[in-house]
Amino acid sequence: MDYPEMLENPEKAVQIATAGEALIDLIVQPDGRYEPCLGGAVFNLTRALARQGVNTLYLNPLSRDRFGRQLAAALVDDGVQLARSQPVTQSTSLAVVGLDDAGHPDYVFYRQDVADRAVTAGSLIESCRRTPALEMVCTGALALAPEDAGHYVPWLRAAHEAGSVVVVDANLRPSVMPDLGAYRRNVHAALQCADVVKVSDEDLENLEVPGADVFARARHLLDASGAGLLVLTLGRQGACLLTRDGRQWRAREAEPLAVMDTVGAGDCFLAGFMAALLARKGGAADTGALLALPDSAGRGLLAHAVASASLCVMRRGCVPPTRVEVQARVEQAPCVFD
Fold this sequence. Notes:
Elements: E1 16-19, E2 23-28, E3 34-39, H1 41-51, E4 56-58, H2 66-77, E5 81-82, E6 93-99, E7 105-110, H3 121-129, E8 136-140, H4 149-161, E9 165-169, H5 180-191, E10 196-200, H6 201-206, H7 214-224, E11 229-233, E12 239-243, E13 248-252, H8 265-280, H9 287-290, H10 295-313, H11 323-332, E14 336-337
Helix pairs in contact: 1-8, 3-4, 8-10, 10-11
């Protein structure tokens, strides 16, 4: 049975296309059982974008197995359009997730011959070519594995050449990459295609970016990439937005949060940032606009992103907030800007 295809719906012109992993997180419970939860960084991001009112297209195929059907149903229920409505025979990716006392997850992945990796550069490019109103594309996390470089990097280059704003979330997973040198080189290659880079303080360490502190390392990475903007997440310390012309904004929550866990926090943060960036010009984003952010816009982008992440961490698992929820938090619990 095919999944519902909504590509031809003229009332839902796609704004953003996402590509990358969609998988099942098997989360270890206190009694030793494993609870299956829908997940994957790009899957979470895709749902989070749709919940914030962004018309989003997911490019990767999904499995015909039970887990694949659940992933497809969740995307469609949130309003995501599927570029590949035909399910594939490969099984769904799995991740075993443990949580430490602070709710921070660690992962072990099972991703050989799986559905979401059954892509080619040509299929990604063709899906985007069929979407003429496309304004942004985004990938990252496990899609940046070096063995998949031939699929995603050519697609990113093609999207950039076609005029879409390219967003890359470094979101490194070094524990599951056997060749860290090749992994780092491929991440840097993807960043050369980017207009917007999202990176965490931990990612900067894993990439071995030089610098006296986290902000100097972030500036170094931005200067070495092809991007106009870099957004840096700092966990409980908030986030920072840097521009290629040397400007910087830093935001954090005014009060400590009641954190349930941090699963999907970075994905919801990026979704909030991208949604706010699209909304800033009434749904239009372009590379020129990225280099001309006024101070109020930089603050607004960070505030929306931080609120999105905060709402996520106060819930168990990745339950992305809606646009209404995010806007309410921005107004009722404003960020502190340093």
